Amino acid sequence: MWTNPSGTIDDLVNSQTLWVNKRLATLFPGLTYATAAPTSNTTFVKASWPSSQNRAGMLTQPGFLWSASDTAVTSIVRRGKFIHDDVVCSDALPPPIDLSTPQAMNVIACKSPDGTTSLSTCDSEILQSDARMMYSPCKTCHAQMDPYARVIQNFGAIGNYRTVDEANRSINPSVTFTAGPLASETVSGAVEFGQALVSSHVIRDCSVQKIASYALGSMVRIYNTCEVNDIRTQTDGTIKSLFKQVAMANVLRARQGGAK
To answer: Over the stretch 50-85, which tens digit does the pLDDT of each residue have?
Structure first.
């Protein structure tokens, strides 16, 4: 995508390719190669995921999944917040709550806030997420961010494809979003999620916001801003256009001078 002038932002959540060395190829069996399988750990070759794994670009790349997981299990909270903040560019969530209150501790333990009802065995990320999304005080934030991670639960802590979770229960990656730019949409799995990000233009619009933020040196956390919206209207969806229009934007070219 970087060397091809026609490479698009949409490719980031649709591509089925990756680059692996010998060690990574061993970790992720079933890959096919444009030329030949890698023979060393110092040389990377282009590969493609098995179609049966329903991968979706960067959202299912091992590097991303590793970085947004706990040591041994997936982290719905970490993955969900990352996608909420930095892939979808939803506005900032409320400040974190006090997790030491009796109500919060009960919900964390998969109970009702008053502690009188146990919701589940609470032994998997999905069951813990169920409780957070159902009850206050956790619901306010987690109903907005957990769904983004639940839709990619078919990928384990190191990015391995799986059909059962850490408690050996079948994974259902279907989610109906209740908030954010995909509100009311039902999506099942990573591929459909990637397609939804493309059809809604969310991935393109968020990319403009992120690159503009890096260029400014200050993170823009509000989605609907005049300056960012102006750049969005000028881009054509290609990566080349994204960087060009950000570099030429008035918000970056016209700056107030000051004492050094």
So the answer is: 999 999 999 999 999 999 998 888 999 999 999 999
Are the CB atoms for 159 and 62 separated by under 8 Å? yes
How far apart are the C-alpha atoms of 136 and 103, rounded to whole Å? Answer: 8
Are residue 84 and residue 194 in the same domain, yes or no? yes
- Residue range 15-52, pLDDT digits in tens: 999 999 999 999 998 999 988 999 999 999 999 999 99
Q: Which of 163, 172, 92, 99 is nearest to 130 (CA)?
A: 172
Do 84 and 155 fall into the same domain?
yes
Mark whether 172 and 224 lie in a shared domain: no
Predicted structure pTM score: 0.90
Q: Is 257 a member of any domain?
A: no
Which domain covers residue 239, as residue numbers? 202-252
Cα angle 229, 12, 3; round to 5: 100
Question: 167 and 81: one domain?
Answer: yes
202-221 pLDDT tens trace: 999 999 999 999 999 899 99
Do 69 and 193 fall within a single domain? yes
Angstrom distance (rounded) from CA 257 to CA 248: 18
CA 98 from chain center: how many Å? 26
Q: How many domains, in total, are found in the chain? A: 3
